[in-house]
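Example record used in the benchmark description.
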Amino acid sequence: MEMAGNPGRYVWFVALYNARAYYPILAILFLDLGLTLDQYVMLNLIWAATIFLFEVPSGALADTIGRKKLLVTASLLMVAEMSCLLFAPKDGGWLLFSICVVNRLLSGLSEAAASGADEALAYDSLPEKNREQAWDSALARAMRLRSVAYVFAMILGGLMYDPAVVNRILPESWAISASFAHRLPVALVLVQALFCVVITLRMVEPKKLCHDSLGKACGGALKLILSTAKWVFTNPATLVIVVIGMAIDCVVRNFATINSSYYRLIELPEWSFGFIGAALGLMGYVVPTVAAKMNQRFGTLACFGIIACVALVGLMGIAPAAPHWGLFPAMLLMTTLGFLGFTMSRALNRETDSARRATVLSVKGLAFNLAYGSFSLGFSLLLASFPAEPAGEALRGALLWQIPFFAISVFGLLWWGKRRLRRVTHKDSRPL
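Model output (structure tokens):
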């Protein structure tokens, strides 16, 4: 097996790992198993805390013991987490809750192990000549295939979960119960996990990244984490990239997590939510092509400026919460996450040397999650400061107030970034 096949394997891994059929029914999946809403919220906190604690250490391990090993581990953990959900006893009380806790821990560990390692291995497998252009192509293919897979996952997950739909297709003698139907999306994702194991086992580690022993690798992991974090936030180029990216991402991602509440506010029927997600997936198919051309024509700061302007238009469009028509600015706003992700990946991989690439990407992921968590907390406090009645008034007020916050913070940081990089641009004669 040749290392040149890694980018293609990365494309399939990204699609199969991320497009999960249980996403559109994740909350009701746990509730229908017999958990309470409070327990489900607690499970999400456990999942987020696990990713937070292990994301950067896993990136350092990927750079020391090898990226392939972390990706195989992530795939095996995905198999284990899906098996927990598939065989969890319905209405099993504390046994059910305990199994779901294990599921969330395994899921968080898997996400942390895969974060950064997949991109780092694929990027370093490309020929050094014209590597940046080759990465644009590989990243665009990965994003397009993930978008297509996401569309199918959103639609299939919702349909498979409904026993009435499944039984309408099956012969009458094969009719299944609701409990059985509720496991079907999980079973499909388990099959995807097994494919991920096969794909990652076929990946080839670059020789310069292969290491002798786990003991030696772990001994240097902490030192690598500290030195890399220091480098990211003291090197002018990476500092500007990460800080501006954080500022845009936290606002847009926060809206993406509350979009169902917004859809209800603009009077969209709940049955349409899954199809809206599928439509966003289709739009995501076009984003990589446009993002690649945009990044090849403009510098990173200019691309950030374009993304920020589009996001601001989207934020201004959703603030009035116009019935039905408010969907269009919401979809425009959420497409900026794809443009931002492409631009961040391209810029950070270009600035980072191979020896610590996965660690840098994990540090970026941790910083983004901290910014997102902080903004989400502030947004929650903002919501609480508005009167609860009439219904939807608090969300309308919060959506309005985030416009000046975004404009002042992001465009202020763009001005700061341009000034911060003036001397660097002069020395390196390569604009960011």
